[in-house]
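Sample intake sheet
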Amino acid sequence: MRVAACAAVVAGCALTSKATPREPRYFAPELATPARTAATPCGEIRLGRVDAADALRLPIVRRVSAVELVPYETMRWTELPDAYATRALVGTLFAARRLAEAVSGPAPTLDVEVTAFEEVEVGPRRGARVELRYELYDDRRVLARGVVEREQAASMSSIDGVVAATAAALVMASDELADRVVATVCTPR
């Protein structure tokens, strides 16, 4: 009987509590628009799948150790990380580099997985880390595969600084990946 009475009191407290509900806050990294190149394309590729690791969803995550990610309870991306990566790669590969986007016919395909899109500590400051795993292949063989990882320290200690650092790290990673793809596709064999 006492257990039932205690349970009723605890349940009553939870139901009548006046705690303020936690409202989610949404953030979007502002990606710089790459300058369009006027050079004649040296090759063409098809952008295939761009996926994100299962842990990378709408909640912003913070790396607390080499093996642990912790999601923020109320801070969310406005879109999934793979959507940001797709936009960054399209802008970098097809606007800022000498590549044409293939829509039909034989052309190498680039698949990318976003394996890190997270807040990290960069020295004594907050920052961001972006990691892109990629594979470039044609209908017969893998032409190139690898990992591009970039970290960027935040310019301010708030979450706004971390979001800006995430955008900068994504742009740097996309630039390096695009350079690797251009070197593979545009270099005569």
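Comment: Helices lie at 2-16, 81-96, 159-186. The chain has a mean pLDDT of 88.
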